[in-house]
Design a protein that fits this description.
There is one protein chain. 68% of the residues lie in helices and 10% in strands. It is mainly α. It has 2 domains: 206 residues, Alpha-lytic protease prodomain-like (Up-down Bundle), CATH 1.20.1510.10; 70 residues, 2-Layer Sandwich (Alpha-Beta Plaits). Strand 1 and strand 2 form a beta hairpin. Helix 5 runs antiparallel to helix 6. 35% of the residues are buried.
Length: 294
């Protein structure tokens, strides 16, 4: 019953993703056309950002499909890291988009163009509605997924950017301040790079098999050494298999090999209870033994 419930939730999430992808692709097309017709670089900038969101949603959807594949002889830990790899691809693309927007904005300073304010306001208004709708679709999934969290934040930033574009179009209509379009482009680019700078370190940390931020190896060793029969724990490796699964490898020195199974069971229970480490591999060593067979 629980498996069926999880399957239904995953299927619902996939449907939401597909809807979000379609409406964002349509929005991107509308923004590009509107930006070309109006001459607004900020509108095209917002379109590029929105396209990166649509692409990230598509990559996240594919990664979710791959991540559900069971472990096999080629990927003995399974395929869950596909979502982490997808997050890395999305974030690197986001950095490239941000740098390109800065380049275009600086170039526009030397070659200013006339911008049609009303077109900017209308298209940006449509974009705002779509961005809010997409953010609502992805919000619940963003709580447990690095990919979806990035997608959700991108859509929120898109919504803010659309508000900024509307303001810029209004300023152009009222005062003829065309430089507001260039300024807004730089602000959008800065926000894009800021989001990437926040999420990239966490993504790379998992791919580098880094230890979970909320778990100290020293604390893990202390808890393990408090188990009766354990005299020392060393050669400890702690890493994240993916965003939600932690793994541990350690050498455990015990007083009596006859108690190995009981000690191992207790250690695994403690690791899961205290640190949520469900996957642990331990090599047991004897503390001292006068027998030749040891």
């Amino acid at each position: 019953m629980g498996h069926q419930h999880n399957h239904d939730i995953e299927a619902m999430g996939d449907r939401r993703l597909i809807i979000a992808i379609v409406i964002n692709m349509l929005l991107t097309l509308a923004q590009v056309v509107g930006g070309i017709v109006s001459g607004s670089l900020a509108l095209i900038a917002d379109a590029l950002h929105n396209f990166s969101d649509a692409a990230s949603l598509l990559i996240a959807w594919v990664a979710r499909k791959i991540g559900r594949q069971p472990a096999d002889r080629f990927k003995t830990f399974g395929y869950k890291r596909a979502e982490v790899i997808a997050a890395l691809i999305n974030l690197v693309t986001l950095v490239l988009v941000g740098l390109y927007l800065i380049y275009e904005a600086i170039w526009r300073v030397f070659e200013p163009q006339v911008i049609e304010g009303w077109m900017v306001i209308i298209v940006a208004g449509i974009a705002l509605v779509v961005d809010v709708a997409t953010a609502i679709l992805t919000y619940s999934m963003s709580k447990r997924s690095m990919n979806m969290r990035a997608a959700f934040l991108h859509n929120v930033s898109d919504a803010l950017a659309s508000v900024g574009v509307i303001v810029a179009g209004t300023v152009i209509l009222l005062y003829g301040w065309y430089w507001a379009d260039t300024l807004l482009t730089l602000l959008i680019a800065g926000y894009v790079l800021y989001q990437a700078a926040i999420l990239l370190p966490d993504t790379i940390h998992i791919l580098m098999e880094g230890a979970p931020d909320n778990i100290s190896i020293g604390d893990v060793i202390n808890v393990m050494e408090k188990v009766e029969g354990v005299s020392n724990v060393h050669h400890v490796h702690l890493w994240q298999l993916d965003e939600h699964q932690n793994a541990l490898e350690a050498h455990v020195v015990i007083n009596d090999f006859g108690e190995t199974e009981q000690i191992k069971k207790t250690l695994k229970l403690e690791l899961e209870r205290v640190f949520a480490i469900a996957h642990s591999t331990m090599e047991f060593e004897i503390d001292h033994c006068g027998k030749a067979c040891c």
